[in-house]
Amino acid sequence: MKKIFLIIFIAIIAITTYGQNTSLVYVDGWVDIRSAGELFEAFPGDSLRAGDSVITGSDSYAELEQKNLSSIFVEPDSIFTIREMEGSSGKETVLSTTVGSVSFKFGKLFGIEPIIATPSMVAGIRGTELTVYAGEDGSTLIAVDSGLVTVESQGVSVDLVKDEGVEVLPGEVPGEKFSLLGREMDFASWNAEKYESLIADPETGLKHMGNQLDGFITEIVILDNLLTELKMEKEYIKKEWQKILDEQGKEQGKAFFNKNVHPLDLKTGPLFLNIRYYSLSSLSFRRFILGGLYLDMKARYIMDVNNNEYQKFLSMYEDVMNSFEESVVPFLDANDI
Amino acid sequence: MKKIANVIISIVILLVLSSCATMKAVPKDRAIAKFIELYNSGDTVRMTEMTSIPMLIDGEIVARNTDADFFWNSLAKAGFTLDGSESFTVEPLGANSSLVFGDTMEVGTFFAKYVPETAVLVRVKGPVGDFILLLSGRKGPYPFIFGFTGPLL
Amino acid sequence: MYKKIVLVLTVFALVMIISSCGALLGNSIEERVQQFEIDLNGSRSSIIENFSSDCGNYNAMNIATYWSDNTSVFDDDYKTFNIVIPSDPAETFTTTYSDNAGGPYNIKFYLVNEGDFFSGDNWKIRTIWVDDSVQIN
User: Fold this and answer.
1) Averaged pLDDT for residues A18-38
2) Structure confidence by residue, pLDDT tens digits, B61-81
3) Which of A121, A171, A324, C84 is the most exposed place for a label (fewest CB within 10 A)?
4) Residue A24 burial (C-beta neighbours within 10 Å; 0-12, 13-18, 19+)
5) Does domain A22-189 have CATH number 2.60.120.1440?
6) Range of the domain at C96
7) Substitution target from C52, C59, C68, C106 for chain A, most A beta carbons within 10 A
8) Which chains share 3+ C-beta pairs under 8 angstroms with C?
9) Where are the domains of chain A?
10) pLDDT band at residue A13, thresholds of 50, 70 and 90?
């Protein structure tokens, strides 16, 4: 009897978990999934949708699997998000580490390889094992165990092969690549070192972060301009279509619409979704990197709020936030918060 | 004998009820005073436990327990305490309450989405001016904190 | 007696689990596409529920402006949409749709079954191609 119950139970579990693309296969300690603004405790078997984030605490760890072909290891104190955007060769999966340390071991999982991203860089990969360290100051360190990785930031690319690494500061081009041989990578001490220098000179750090946010905003503005142009063109052609409808009848109108308006309709949707990609990336950056610095500064100066350095920081921070409000917020809504 | 049994059952029921956590209860003055006492005790572990995530600090949404923990620890390290003389004022949530934290879409959405209607704004003195605690619900003797801002200008 | 109580409780628990999982809310492929069409022509406030959580654009398209503005290929101005739904469609199928402005256009759907033992089939849209261009993925 007990055996039957056990079999039914296993069958139910198997049935309820089949068909999931990205799932958590191992969780150690308390791990959260952030989905549509809500936080849920993560459990093995949970599936992730694009846009969801896996958030580990100081003593927790998570492993994800995609279609059983790739493994993603999210180390403590990390935020990892899967996103998707329209690239030059169609839809591209972007594996984004906002903060913390995440290792990847890829099989042939997406047809086209995913893009690895942090707030300060994007990397194309080919058959690769690599670790991404995203510091709380917005910096990135990439260490390649195998395969080829092309790291790109601010329009400059660096190719990395086995046992090579590179550091990218927020809003800057990639630094000099270096050999990982004989070098023990330790995210905690790297991150602590980066954060110490950030806090020693928060104004410069904030300036770099502002540049990084500007990078996202530039993409949003370019795409938004394109979208606005397309929509204007569409509205203009729609007026002509209306005229043809009135003067020449439904069939002529339909033919005109299919030929002239519909091709524009096919372009606006994907363009808008790309704007959303950059808006959501900006929101992550604002929430976890900029917000983290703000909280730290607030606590440090709470007994000395009139301190000149602090006031200067607040004024700069306000400027950065104003850009965010102006350029990013129009593409966000309550579901994102 | 029956009386003793009744008393024990009542105690058990009370204990069970008092250990239940709810986000939707208007905090009473006594609970607010206890919360301020908890903050001033420097028990940051308990403070993090009593923090509703996401939490609002000024216009910033804190989405991770780790960040809330870091914030409470940093405040404690800075020697920041609140006036424990129970001279705080309590204001129920109003249409413009969110403006105390900031006039942004994020703050407005935070209030609409995460702050229960039972929440209150507690104005309490700090070493460098008045601060606002956004409190609601209850777990044991303490309310949960949903927001913190100040010093008020 | 004890066995009877266990049996009754087990049946009760199963009924509760099944009802809480929305067993009656399952959808076949045909029903899902029909529902999508209804939502396109309606308020669109719940249209996102027709899509699989595995859609790469799920969060990106979970915003009212995408559906209510003249942004998506299914422009609000072109109501009414009419999708030709074949009988017993496969999980990937190509058909046509038209709206009050033009068409017919080729539309290809790829659906995934997110149902489970309790809920039964619950097909959701994973990808939509219009005239070979990926619109939702």
Assistant:
1) 77
2) 999 888 999 999 999 999 999
3) C84
4) buried
5) yes
6) 25-136
7) C59
8) A
9) 22-189, 202-336
10) very low
